Amino acid sequence: MAALQSLLKRTTKPNRSDLLACRPFSSLRSSSATATQTITTPPPQIPPFDHQPHPYYGPSADEVFSKRKQFLGPSLFHFYQKPLNIVEGKMQYLYDEAGRRYLDAFAGIVTVSAGHCHPDILNAIFEQSKLLQHATTIYLHHAIADFAEALAAKMPGNLKVVYFVNSGSEANELAMLMARLYTGNLGMISLRNAYHGGSSSTMGLTALNTWKYPLPEGEIHHVMNPDPYRGVFGADADSYAKDVQDHIDYGTSRKVAGFIAETIQGVGGAVELVPGYLKNVYDIVHKAGGVCIADEVQTGFGRTGSHYWGFETQGVIPDIVTMAKGIGNGFAIRSCSYNSRNLQV
């Protein structure tokens, strides 16, 4: 993430009406001996798009930035030395205050899966809002049960019970709570370079110093990251799995509550796990009395391109699956699905 921020801060201010949000690598200065030569190839143009943004009469970027610095917490960061003032979105595009169009390659940081202001989603929101805007679970409403049924239908195996919460951090915190209550053990295992949330509990599962504060983390073990390109064991899944077994043998009572991993790491960089790793580790964790949790916040809902869930690329079925972001296309809907046959908390 730090490297990405550094790259984006070097991005120059757009000087055309329609540009890609990030300049291609070919347009950046070379870091080799020819660094004095500037490549002058113009950046590619994004395709025409049949949408005219509305005129914007709101506060300028400078005014918004000034108010943000005055009233919002200083821990919030931004991309670019002069942040974009985004005022409108349509499908895969965003518009700034001057009407310039940008391709949202982030999808709102993996959040807007179906595009900005998708007409079908807007219509569903509008029609529902005319009838009822909120319903608590202490009363009945068919949409909650219908949605849970549809989500369970997308799950393999016996992952058929759904619990809705408000954030990805809360989903992971709930998963950790369930693992500890169900097993009666405290020890949790996660990967180095992992990100699982910013709450006081999930910060312990996270293993990136950028996203951690000096707070008590509880009984959490961070094992080697099975990175096939930069990891100490290369693409040797057995050696990485043995590291997990060693942590259980020497760092715990040989009993653990659970293991959690992103199938493809996101915040720590797009890092795929060594093939076969999760299958090996899930067996080890189950033998130690723990449950296996798949964090699908960024890899779920078809984002891998080949499977609906990221864990399917590793040929495993977790005991608990957490998801967020894209599930609500920007609305605060996140959930935790678990195996109803095995987990009775």
Q: Would you identify the CATH architecture of the domain at 142-339?
A: 3-Layer(aba) Sandwich
Q: Give the strand line-up of the largest sheet.
A: 5-13-12-11-8-6-7
CATH fold title of the domain at 142-339? Aspartate Aminotransferase, domain 2
Give the overall pLDDT as a whole number: 87
- As a percent range, the share of helical residues equals 25-40%
Specify the number of helices: 9
Oligomerization status of the protein chains: single chain
Helix-strand makeup class: alpha/beta
Number of strands: 13
The stretches of 5 or more residues where confidence is low (pLDDT under 50) are: 1-35
Report the CATH C-level class of the domain at 142-339: Alpha Beta
What sequence of helices (H) and strands (E) makes up the elements? HEHEEEHHHEHEHEHEEEHEEE
Our measurement of the CA-to-CA distance between the termini, rounded to an integer number of angstroms, reads 36 Å
Largest sheet: 7 strands, mixed
Rounded to an integer, what's the Rg over CA atoms?
22 Å
Protein name: alanine--glyoxylate transaminase
Cofactor: pyridoxal 5'-phosphate
Subunit structure: Homotetramer.
Subcellular location: Mitochondrion
